[in-house]
Amino acid sequence: MEYKNVLVSCGELSGEIHLSNLVREMKKSHTGLNFFGIGSELLKKEGCRILVDYREISLVGFAEVIKKYFFIRKKLNIIRDFIRSYRIDLVILVDFPGFNFILARYARKFNIRIVYFIPPQIWAWHYSRVKKIREYFDLVIPILPFEKEIYRREKIPFYYHGHPILDNVNTGPAKDTFRKKTRDRPFPQDHCPASGQPGNGGQEQSAGHAGCMPCFESNASRPFF
User: What is the reported pTM?
Assistant: First the structure.
């Protein structure tokens, strides 16, 4: 089956990085593809027509969602109207299950093929979401090796290619470079530095910084291995 019009959706920066890489590669291998959806600057740079900017609807915490409920419904209706009036051949969703499950359920009514690239971590919490994944999605692309067994066991079609972060990081001699840049800091030479990342959204960073930094600081000098 040939695809022409593709709807994509992500809910934060890291997902958009991976999705924009995918869009770029798809355009290289398939000419004439048109991309639309939920994204921001990176997807726009790859030629995707942004229908909704995820920065407007990506919220942390139940209170924030309740506060902007009607605004989020309005944005969701924009996507629904677009799916109904425009001939979409393929939908590719990245994580963001609270929003993307609703999109998938709606797209399924039109018999559109739906792919979940980077599905939610059902193995960590709310495993029951696997029922919705089985119902809505034609293909799941997990990024962690042990997730293969989950989808194999649940008889959900999947394709595993590895973690997309490897497309964005320099896997060269980063440790030696780090040592040179931080040689004036008190890092024991036999210790391996670690980086703590609370999140890439504004609210996540604020909440993560307040909650995680005391833990990071109290354990910074503690040997783990």
Answer: 0.79
